[in-house]
Amino acid sequence: MLHTQLWAKSDPYHPLWCHLLDVAAVCEALLPRFGGVEGLPTPWLLYLVALHDIGKADAEFQNKDPQQAQRLAALGLTLPAEVTKFRHEARSADWLSAKLKTLGWGKQPAQAIAGAIRGHHGDFGAQAYREQDPTLAARVALWAPLREALAALVRDTLGAEAFALTRCRDASAAGMKLSGLIVLADWIASNHEQYPYHDNTRLDDSLSPRQYWRAAQREAKIAVARLELTAPPAAGPEPPAFNDIWPGFTVRAVQRAVEEAALSGVGPGLAIIEAPMGEGKTEAAVYLAEYWNRRTGRAGLYFALPTQATSNQMHKRYWDYLQRTSPTEAPRLVHGMSWLLDEIPPAETARTYGDQAGGEDNEPLSREWFRNAKRALLAPHGVGTVDQALMAALNVKHGFLRFLGLNAKTLIVDEVHAYDAYMTTLLCRLLVWCRALEIPVILLSATLSWGQKQQLCRAYAGRDVLPTPSAQDEPYPLLTFVPLDAGPDAPAQTISVTPDPSRDRTVALEVHPGALEDPLLTAALAAAQVQDGGCVCVVVNTVVAAQETFRALKDRQRQNGLPPDTRLMLFHARFRAETREEIEKEVLRRFGKDAGANRPRRAILVATSVVEQSLDIDFDVMLSQLAPVDLLLQRSGRVWRHAHHPRHGRPGPALHLLLPTAGRFHFGGTGLVYQPELLLRTLDLLWGRPAFQLPADIRPLIEACYGATEPPATVPPEVFAKAVRKRIADQQKAEDEAKKHLIPDPDPAVFQLAQTKEIVAEAEEGQKADFFHAQTRLGDQTVSSLVLHDPELLALVRRGIAHPKAPPPPQEKLRALFWQKANLPARWLAEATAAPGFEIITDGPRWLRHHVVLGFRDGVWQGEHTPSNDQRAPITIEDHPAEGLRRRELPAASGEQPDADA
Fold it and tell me: For 267, which of 16, 331, 483, 589 could close a Cys bridge (C-beta 3.0–4.6 Å)?
């Protein structure tokens, strides 16, 4: 019985055979939520998951703990004289691969399963285990039977009868699913707080494996219930109608079309909902997700959005929805700063699991466990930034755990048109894997081009499924479906939606040549719009432009150039987190759907692109710097959005366009944020156009901008040709860069991910990996920075740096620190040294990894910029209370990236 004496955990002590059964028990408890692996009977799936740590039955591992090694040596086990580096997961994988071969398994499934086991610590770098020293022959002869005995104990306990799988239908899908199940089950079973080891202080030969297995099953059910990872609720006998999900809603045309498609039997797969801004795409997507979930036994969704601001607002909307439909559930907010916002007051966590799951501690709902970024998508309901989903397709540690989370729910991606070539490449790889894992996906857009849609559909279907009509003649609004159960040659299903004529809108266009780079002229134009009252939004394309325009408006107000009751506000992403959160709430309170008496009589909001997507805010008139036409259409959707707001005598919605000087095709900072080719095409489309007719103009304008092949007539050929060359080069560079970080495509023949020797990067809690800084705008390189004014917080960080092994500070102190976070342009801090009397820029301690710390004094940090040519330039980074963070120095070099929205 020596095999029962081997250890898996040393503090507290826990036998290896018990740990193997623990993990199998947790996996069994997870199956009602996540499902099994195709082709594997449940006892065999549990058996294989249990064997993930069979490699610990090895002299090299058992020698790692001196106390345990001494105990085992006294029992007669041969152990090495020295502790050496040992990858037990590689030992497990190699042993299991050989074992399955002797049992008649095919090479393909055996390799996929062994690969999943090799990667259960997050990567597949431990490629092989070799006992190379020939003098170890006697030790090998001793330990091999111990592994066989352990495997037999587990097999007999679980009832895994003789079975051999000669081939998987899809090795990649099987390997990915198994990888996630192993890691999740192992994490839960290894967490003594979530899963107390059963009777681990009284284990002896009198406790049979079957008795322990039954106890482990009980503990596993309690742990899984506590984490809300149990089976989804049983579907009702009748398929839900739209008003079953959204009672009391007046069903709009696109929502009715989605309902009819679902009730007519359109199966789960990929759905693309194209409809104008404000037409209820969100509610339609949630309805379709609920319908598909009930049909497939899934539960919940992950709602992915482009920015933290849009995620925060959608989180509130989805929270309200769940409070009405499932009051005991709450969505997890998932982005870099979400842990500051996603809180449940103690009164709302009173639900306990003691009675229903057999526990005795009456522990509250444990949502803290899902706060780790790697586990966030496992939560039954989630709302957050799209990068959290995209990371599943990236070669990051534990990326496959994100796929396991998505596998149990439906993925919704909003504003899908907003992603550039880099992000679209990542999204397409995600869709390829979603198809392989049969994950339903719903994509939403008001302004998706036919080319973008074709690319996304091709990724999910694995082939071209869209017809190729004249793209400008394609109906709009439109639903497109690529069902998982469609035949191998079936085209996508498209459903045209007849728009409600009462929802038609005319947005008048007024152009202002020469205003694009002129904050004083922009301020004058905005001031003119509030003379008789009204709420005006000025949308600019860079943070610097926003700050300059806001400053110009403040100057006008001081000089009585604005009515004294005009409320001026500034909203961009370069405020400290606590300030940005306050501003975001104030923007929604003043200009949201339910503003009521809080809506000012006169107001001007100056904002960057943070306002153009998903935020439900409404203005009487908008001024916008030139941007690609799809973004102008998006921005126009924030004008006269809600009929009940007063309009102060205006005849209708209007969009004022801030353009470059006529005949000049220089775009300044805007041309560094958006592709000049798109700006040139947009200028051509706006030439002589008096208004946007919505929704009729949306499809023709989008296709004329993104799908046209002929150069625009109003642009000099040499200017346009240069812009095209830049776009092609930038797009190729972005795609090539993205491909460096992607996991391999799924291959039914082989689980190629398991052959990846090393990960590209590890995405830490609350962080994007380094390669994620190229977000949805070109050249947007930022650094996560803590802007610290408080000497006490600065001292706290200093202590953490000086004592790296000390525990992190209490949660309230960490929260206070992270409220000071801001994303600063990387070029601000590159080659910068502190001036006398100021703190040097330093990396944070281990509990602030991937953050730099700036100690401010009297609202500023001062230093010098010392580039490679040794020409020093003084720097001042100011945390202005009204304008946010800004940098003052010598003029920027030509071609330098603008301070785009971070």
Answer: 483
Phi, psi of 750 (to 5 degrees): -155, 145
Cis previous bond, 744, omega within 30: no
Write the secondary structure of 46-99 as one string of H (helix), E (strand) and C (coil).
Answer: HHHHHHHHHHHCCHHHHCCCHHHHHHHHHCCCCCCCCCCCCCHHHHHHHHHHHH
Half-sphere exposure of 24 (CA within 13 A, CB side): 33
- DSSP bridge pairs for 568: 604
What amino acid is encoded at 613 in this protein? Q
Residues 606-629: pLDDT tens digits?
A: 999 888 876 789 999 999 999 999
Q: Mind listing the pLDDT tens digit for each residue in 662-694?
A: 889 999 999 999 999 999 999 999 999 999 999
Residue bearing tokens 């003649």: 473
Asked, colleague to colleague, whether 242-346+377-496 and 504-709 share their fold, the answer is yes
**Residue 37: DSSP 8-state:** -
E strand residue ranges, 316-464: 332-334, 382-385, 410-413, 441-445
pTM value surpassing 0.85: yes
Spell out the residues 6+ positions from residue 370 whose beta carbon is closer than 8 angstroms to its own: 227, 332, 376, 378, 379
Give the span between the Cα atoms of 767 and 853, in whole angstroms: 16
Instruction: Name the architecture of domain 242-346+377-496.
Output: 3-Layer(aba) Sandwich (3.40)
Is the CB of residue 588 less than 8 Å from the CB of residue 552? no
Give residues with Cβ within 8 angstroms of 891, minimum separation 6. Answer: none
Ramachandran category for residue 520: left, alpha or beta (phi over 0 → left; psi -120 to 50 → alpha): alpha
Cis upstream peptide for 845 (omega within 30°) = no
pLDDT confidence bin for 127, thresholds 50/70/90: low
- Report H helices in 169-252: 171-190, 209-226, 242-245
Look at residues 227, 496, 549, 465 and name the one whose alpha carbon lies nearest to residue 367.
227
pLDDT of residue 335: 60
* DSSP calls for 115-130: HHHHTTTS--------
CATH topology of domain 504-709: Rossmann fold (3.40.50)
Q: How many CB atoms lie within 10 A of CB 661?
A: 13
CATH number of 2-226: 1.10.3210.30
| Calpha distance 674→570 (Å, rounded) | 22
d(CA 283, CA 43): 41
**Which one-letter DSSP state was computed for residue 808?**
P
By mean pLDDT, which of 202-216, 274-288, 385-399 is the weakest?
A: 202-216
Partners of 562 in beta bridges: none
Segments making up each domain of the chain, as ranges? 2-226, 242-346+377-496, 504-709, 781-888
Reported as type and span, the H/E element at residue 512 is: strand 505-513
Cβ count within 10 A of residue 342: 23
The per-residue pLDDT for range 395-419, each reduced to its tens digit, is 888 889 999 999 999 999 999 988 8
Cα–Cα nearest to 406, from 416, 397, 417, 393:
393
Listed residue (505, 525, 502, 500) closest to 515, CA to CA = 525
Q: Are strands 301-305 and 382-385 parallel, antiparallel or unpaired?
A: parallel
Q: What are phi and psi of 86, to 5 degrees?
A: -145, 130
Q: Decide if 295 contacts 268 (C-beta within 8 A).
A: yes
Q: Which helix (H) or strand (E) segment is 603 a member of? A: strand 602-607
Q: Name the band, by pLDDT with cuts 50, 70 and 90, for residue 770.
A: very low
The single-letter code of the amino acid at 391 is M
CB 780 within 8 A of CB 900: yes
Q: CA 429, CA 433: separation in Å to the nearest integer?
A: 6
Mean pLDDT of 219-233: 90
Q: In 10 A of CB 256, how many CB atoms?
A: 16
Query: Comparing 822 with 196, which gets the higher pLDDT?
Result: 822
Q: Which of 447, 604, 629, 445 is nearest to 539 (CA)?
A: 604
Select the more confidently predicted residue: 726 or 815: 726
